[in-house]
C-alpha cells in the first residue's frame, strides 16, 4: 500500500513539474513571438500547445482546464514554423503537455524518378499517430523491388502501440531500413513503452536520441529558418545525455 501511494505522489509531482515546464515554455514562445513581431496567425501546431488549456494567472499559478478535443487531424507539410519547432523539439525532461508528435522524414529510394522525399507530419494524440500516418500518407505504394532508406527525426519516441506496429512492418518489409532520431523519450518509465522500444530495436530499427548536431541538421533541413542558424537552448547537450543514457539502459 505504501508503495502505491508513493507512486501516486511521484506521479503527482511529475505532473506538476510538467505543467510548470509547459507554462514556462509557452511564455517563452509568446515572448519570442512578440519580440520578432510574429503575431500573425498562430499556426495549428502552436495552438496545439493550448490543448491542455494551460492558463497563466497573475500570481504565476497555472490551471489546467478541461477542453473539448478537436477532431483528429494529421497535418503534413514541407517546412515547420521556427517557433513551433523550437517548442515541439525542445528536449526537456518533462514534456507530456506537448500533446503532439512531429515527425520529419527523409526517404531515399535510390535511383528512381522520385528518388528522395522530404517533409514532415504532425498529429494529435487523439487518433492514429504520425508514425502510422507516415506509412499510409508518405509511403502508400510499397515496391518490394526498391530499396528504401528512411530516416525520421521525431519530437518524441514512439508509444508502445506505434513501436509494435513499426516493428511488425520492418519484419514484413526487409528492403526498408529505418533510423529514428528522437528529441525526447516518450513515457520511458513505463514498462510497456520500454518493451516497445526493445521490440523496435530487435526488428532492426536504428534508434537514437537526437544530439545537439541533429537539432541543427533538422533545423536546416525541415524548418522555415530564413537562413538563420539555430541557437541551441542552454541545457540541450545535458538533456541529450540524460535521454541517451536512459535509452542505452532500456536497450541493453
Ligand atoms: Zn504512437
From TrEMBL:
Stated family: Belongs to the cytidine and deoxycytidylate deaminase family.
Gene3D superfamilies listed in its UniProt record: Cytidine Deaminase, domain 2
Organism for this UniProt entry: Anabas testudineus (Climbing perch)
Record keyword Hydrolase present: yes
Name listed for the protein in its UniProt record: CMP/dCMP-type deaminase domain-containing protein
Domain of life (superkingdom): Eukaryota
Biased composition (Basic and acidic residues): 15-38
GO biological process: cytidine to uridine editing
Gene Ontology cellular component annotations, sorted alphabetically: cytoplasm; nucleus
